[in-house]
Every structure is written in structure tokens, then in C-alpha cells.
Amino acid sequence: HLLWPGGAIAVDVPADAPSRAYGKLEEAIAWAELPIARGDVALELGAAPGGAPLALARRGVEAWGVDPGELAPHVAALPNVHHLRVKIGALRWEDLPARVDWLLVDVNLAPQVAVHEVARLVPPLRAHLKGAIVTLKLNDWAFVDELPELAARIAAFVPGWSARLRHLPSNRREICVVATAR
Questions:
Q1: Which of 35, 63, 66, 178 is the most exposed place for a label (fewest CB within 10 A)?
Q2: How far is CA 60 from the centre of its chain?
Q3: According to the model, what pLDDT value does residue 1 have?
Q4: Cα separation of 53 and 76, whole Å?
Q5: For all residues of the chain together, what is the average pLDDT?
Q6: How far apart are CA 107 and CA 45, in angstroms?
Q7: pLDDT at 10
Q8: What's the pLDDT tens digit per position in 41-67?
Q9: Residue 47 · residue 105 · CB < 8 Å
Q10: Beta carbons within 8 Å of 4's beta carbon, 6+ residues apart
Q11: Angle 88-91-94 (CA atoms, 0-180°, nearest 5)?
């Protein structure tokens, strides 16, 4: 018996969700059974226009979104959403919140570049990180052969983590990698 008949993970995407990232995040949380909870702090790299920050905010999570693009006005206006309008390469440790429980990545970069950029930001976050949800864009089918290595690099962000990969219904040409403690 499948938890989700036909492989579809039933998530409700509200009409005011500014992007499909809302559904992608909710599917990842359901699939991986992640304990993302009210009071947690999440950092999303590639946040515009705000689908994932909206989903996080509605869960009571303090959402920090990093993206040079604009967040939808109704998302940016939420009291538990913070927007850092910089490119990932210009983001500095000093700009990050003191504590980050969940790291989310959904950037429009080649998977190797995305993982490299994120890896440089992880050291000051390790102490509190509970897990990461990384969306890898497969703009080139050759990247499929690199998925095991990329998942291993993501798992190596924090000692003791392991990574799982899955193509989720909302992912199109993307793979979701979830890394958490074993």
C-alpha cells in the first residue's frame, strides 16, 4: 500500500500562493515527514516570488528569504517573513539570522553551482540545523549522473546527516533532496 496512491502527494495550494514553490515545499515536507514546526527558523535561498516563505509563514515558522527578486507584496507584509535582497553569491554570514533550523534551496543555478554556493554558507548554521530541502534543477539531463555525488555533498553539510532524493509531482525537471540526521 502506498501512502500516496498513484504517487501524488495531496497538498492544498491556496489561490494566493505566488508560485509553485508553495506546493513543492509542502510535498517535500509530507514525503520526508519533516517536523517543521511553529517557532522554527527557516532560511530559503531562491525565495522570490515567495511561495515557500508563504507556506512556512502559515506554519508559524520565521522565514528568511534570500533573493534579488521581489517577494509578492502580501508575502513580504507578513510579520514572520524577512527578505534579504541579495544574490546568493553576495550573501554573507553576518546577514544570516543567529539560528537557522531548516535550510531550503530553490535557486536557478546549475546543481553543482548551487551546492557549492550553499556549502560556503553552512558552517555557522551547523549547530542548529535540523535539515535541508534542496531542489536541484535538471536543465541538462547529464546532471542526472551527478545526483548521487550531489546528494552526498548535501548530506556532508552536517556530520551525521544522510540524504534522500525523489522526484516530487510538483518538481517538473527538478529533484528534491532532503538531508537530515540519520
A1: 35
A2: 16
A3: 44
A4: 9
A5: 94
A6: 6
A7: 82
A8: 999 999 999 999 999 999 999 999 999
A9: no
A10: 10, 30
A11: 155
- For residue 11, which of 52, 43, 42 has the smallest C-alpha distance? 52
Grid cell 540524504 in the structure block, residue:
163
Q: Write the pLDDT tens digit of every residue in 69-123.
A: 999 999 999 999 999 999 999 999 999 999 999 999 999 999 999 999 999 999 9
Give the phi and the psi of residue 62 in degrees, each rounded to 5.
Answer: -80, 115
| Three-state SS sequence of the chain | CCCCHHHCCCCCCCCCCCCCHHHHHHHHHHHHCCCCCCCCEEEEECCCCCHHHHHHHHCCCEEEEECCCCCCHHHHCCCCEEEECCCHHHCCHHHCCCCCCEEEECCCCCHHHHHHHHHHHCHHHCCCCCEEEEEEECCCHHHHHHHHHHHHHHHCCCCCEEEEEECCHHHCCEEEEEEEEC
Amino acid 35: pLDDT: 98
* Catalytic residue check, 137: yes
Please answer whether residues 105 and 118 qualify as being in contact, where contact means their C-beta atoms are separated by less than 8 angstroms: yes
C-alpha cell at 112: 553543482
Residue 5 identity: P
Backbone dihedral angles phi then psi of residue 69, each to the nearest 5 degrees: -80, 165
Distance from chain centroid for Cα 116 = 15
